[in-house]
Amino acid sequence: MEVEQIIAVESAYAMGAGMKIRRIVSVLFGLYLLAFIGLFIFQRSFLYFPNHYYTPLSRVHEHQSFQELPVRTADGLNLKAWYAPATSKPFTIVFFHGNGDSLYSASPIADSYIDAGFGFLIVEYRGYSGLAGKPTEAGLYSDARACLYALKSRGVKTENMILFGHSLGTGVATQMAEEFPVGGVMLLAPYLSIAKMAQIDFPIFPAKWIVLDRFENEKKIGKVHVPVLIVNGAMDRVIPPSQGQRLFELANKPRKFYSLSDCGHNDAFDEFSVIALDWIRRLR
Hints:
Layout: H1 2-41, H2 43-47, E1 67-72, E2 78-84, E3 92-96, H3 103-106, H4 111-115, E4 119-123, H5 137-153, E5 161-166, H6 169-179, E6 184-188, H7 194-201, H8 217-220, E7 228-233, H9 241-250, E8 255-260, H10 269-281
Helix pairs in contact: 5-6
C-alpha cells in the first residue's frame, strides 16, 4: 500500500510539473505572439525616424546658393526641397537621405559638390522636416518623382541628373533610376531589401514575411541601365557591407564598387565625395 501511495504521489507531482511547464510555455508563446503582432503593427516606427520641425534656410549657415524648391506630389501634398543650381558643371546631384536625417542635417553633404560647380537637390520626404504626411514606401517614391519633375521644370534635363542615395535613400534612388533615364546613380551604404534587413534585426521572428515597405533593391538594380557607383564602409554595423557587394554583382555595367576600410555607416561622406566627384567627371 505504501508503494502505491508513493507512486500516486510521484504521479501527481509529475502531472503538476507538466502542467506548470505547459503554463510557462503558453505564457512565453503568448508573449512571443504579442511581440510579433506589435512588430507588425508598429513596424514603420522601426523604419522611419522623422524629425517634426522645419529649419528655414535663413537659419542655416551653409551654402548661400541653396533655395527652397516648392514641390507638390501626385497625391496632393505640398513639400519642400532644398536646391542649389549648378554653376559650372552640367550635372545636378539629387540626394535621397537616410531614415533619420532631414533637410538641415543633410545639407552639409552638399558642400563639396556645390564647391565643384555641380547642382545639388536635397529631396525631403513626407513627414520629415515638419512637412505634411506620413512616410511609406509608396509615399517616398511619390515625393521623389515630384522632386524630379520640379527639377525638370527648372530646366535641368533628366540625363543631367545624378541620383545619390544613402542608407534608406538607396531604395528611393534605385526606384527612380529604374523609372527615369538619369545620368547615373550613386549608392552609399545600400541594402538588398528592407525585408532582409528586418530579418537580420529581428532574427527570432519571421520578420521578412510581414514587411510592408520592402524597398527591394536586389530585384530592381538589374533594371537600371545607367552607370552605377556603389560604396560601402567596411566597418558598417547597421547594414552588412556584404549586401552592397552583392548589389554591385547584380548591377549592370558600367558599374564601380569601393569599400572604405576605415568607415562605418554615417561617417563615409567625405571619403565618398572624393570618389564620387571623380566618378561623375568621368561620365562625360
